[in-house]
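Hi all, posting the design record for the shared folder.

TITLE: backbone redesign
STEP: 1 of 1
STRUCTURE INPUT:
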């Protein structure tokens, strides 16, 4: 009887230790307050890599947002009938990589003066936009746009829209992290579309992305 009682006590103690360890893991996970940022910058193939390997970035997803049709396909978005933008949605830790730094990277990937699309790609789905997820992001986005207008390298007006975030639909799997899956085609498209030359000519001090 004493052995059984001792075994029960030991088993109970072991379960308490496991519960304590698990609760600590959940607590640590809970301390990481992640946020979302959503940017449209033309073809989403070229908008993942600049963010993907920054510290504090949990994931970057290519997708569609701002339109009217649920779960649109790539072909439907490209047909310019759904109202969606090609965009990337970034899950990030603002304590490690704040939203202001995301905005800085974003502006340096696009031509914010082009209201008809981006580089080789034309149409509404390729227009630029910042989709804010809260009031703080809206204010920071507006301020960064004003700063770019006043101090940036562009002579034309900045036409990038700042819009409230709406439903975001992840794009098809073959679009996700395209720069990793098809590095040669990615580099060829980035150069061939004119994006690479534009970035280098306007942001000479930018780190290689």
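Okay, here is what came back for every position:
SEQUENCE:
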């Amino acid at each position: 009887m004493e052995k059984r009682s001792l075994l029960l006590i030991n088993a109970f103690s072991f379960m308490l230790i496991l519960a304590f360890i698990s609760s600590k893991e959940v607590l640590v996970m809970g301390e990481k307050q992640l946020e979302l940022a959503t940017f449209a910058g033309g073809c989403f193939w070229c908008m993942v890599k600049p963010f993907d390997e920054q510290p504090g970035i949990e994931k970057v997803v290519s997708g569609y947002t701002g339109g009217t049709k649920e779960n649109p396909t790539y072909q439907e978005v490209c047909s310019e009938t759904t109202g969606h933008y090609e965009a990337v949605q970034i899950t990030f830790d603002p304590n490690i990589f704040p939203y202001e730094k995301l905005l800085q990277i974003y502006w340096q990937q696009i031509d914010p003066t082009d209201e008809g699309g981006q580089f080789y790609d034309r149409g509404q789905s390729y227009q630029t936009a910042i989709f804010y997820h809260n009031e703080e992001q809206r204010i920071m986005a507006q301020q960064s746009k004003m700063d770019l207008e006043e101090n940036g390298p562009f002579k034309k007006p900045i036409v990038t829209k700042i819009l409230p975030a709406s439903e975001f639909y992840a794009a098809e799997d073959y679009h996700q992290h395209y720069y990793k899956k098809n590095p040669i085609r990615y580099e060829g498209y980035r150069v061939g579309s004119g994006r690479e030359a534009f970035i280098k000519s306007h942001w000479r001090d930018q780190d290689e992305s």
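COMMENT: Residues 32-202 form a domain with the Peptide Methionine Sulfoxide Reductase; Chain A fold (CATH 3.30.1060.10).
Let me know if anyone wants the other runs.
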